[in-house]
Write a structure and sequence with these properties.
With 220 residues, the protein is mainly β. The protein has a domain of 152 residues: Porin, CATH 2.40.160.20. It is built from 1 helix and 13 strands. Strands 1-4-5-7-8-10-11-13 form an 8-stranded antiparallel barrel. It is elongated and about 75 Å long. The protein starts with a helix and ends with a strand.
């Protein structure tokens, strides 16, 4: 997390150009994870509960010739549940039902080089760069039931966790609409992550390394 902050601060001191602040919000266009269909069935079920929003602060250093350096801190909530029903041969063939619910707060930090072109009021732009993503507040609640006996437990290190932090590259395109003192910037953005956050040992679910989202920035 230190690297993007250091780069942005260094650029600010070096160029002494206007800095804009604001908020960027939108919605995911892809699910944060995907289920592996070949592993479902036979009593296995996975439910993805993705919150339909992405939100966080944004700051941009505006450079000459339509260039800019942007840093965002985007928050999203991830949650999914798994249910499996198996026969427990050690308990006189009793049915074992296992239900687990995994949740986390995902914080994404994209550092982008932006290029604007066209007229002053409505300017198309493209951007590209790198992003860092980390999970906070990890929690997995597990409940197992055999006949009338239920055992429950909670852990902050889910068995599905592959990597708590990852990085990737980002590309995007949008419009910078200058309305009086406000800049409104709708954008479609694509991110490819180098590794998956979650990977289920049984092959039921895995984090999607390709991410698309629609975002709108409001900066001053």
């Amino acid at each position: 997390m230190r690297l993007p902050l250091i780069l942005l601060a260094g650029a600010a001191f070096g160029f002494a150009q206007p800095v804009t602040f604001g908020i960027r919000a939108g919605e995911p266009l892809t699910d944060f994870a995907s289920t592996v269909q070949s592993a479902l069935g036979s009593g296995n079920n996975v439910s993805l509960n993705q919150r339909p929003y992405v939100v966080g602060p944004t700051v941009e250093l505006r450079l000459p010739a339509g260039l800019g350096i942007e840093l965002d801190a985007l928050y999203r909530r991830q949650n999914y549940s798994e249910t499996s029903v198996t026969t427990n041969t050690t308990s006189l063939n009793a049915i074992l039902t296992t239900v687990s619910s995994t949740s986390a707060d995902a914080w994404e930090f994209p550092l982008l080089l932006k290029y604007r072109f066209g007229p002053k009021i409505v300017r198309p732009y493209v951007d590209a760069g790198f992003a860092w993503d980390t999970l906070a507040g990890l929690k997995q609640a597990l409940r197992q039931t055999v006949a009338t006996i239920t055992n429950s437990s909670t852990t902050s290190t889910p068995v599905d966790l592959n990597k708590k932090g990852t990085s990737g590259f980002v590309i995007g395109a949008g419009l910078d609409i200058h309305a009086l003192l406000v800049h409104i910037s709708p954008e479609v953005r694509y991110t490819h992550w180098n590794s998956a956050h979650f990977s289920n040992p049984a092959g039921l679910v895995e984090s999607d390394q390709n991410q698309a989202e629609f975002l709108v920035g409001i900066t001053f």
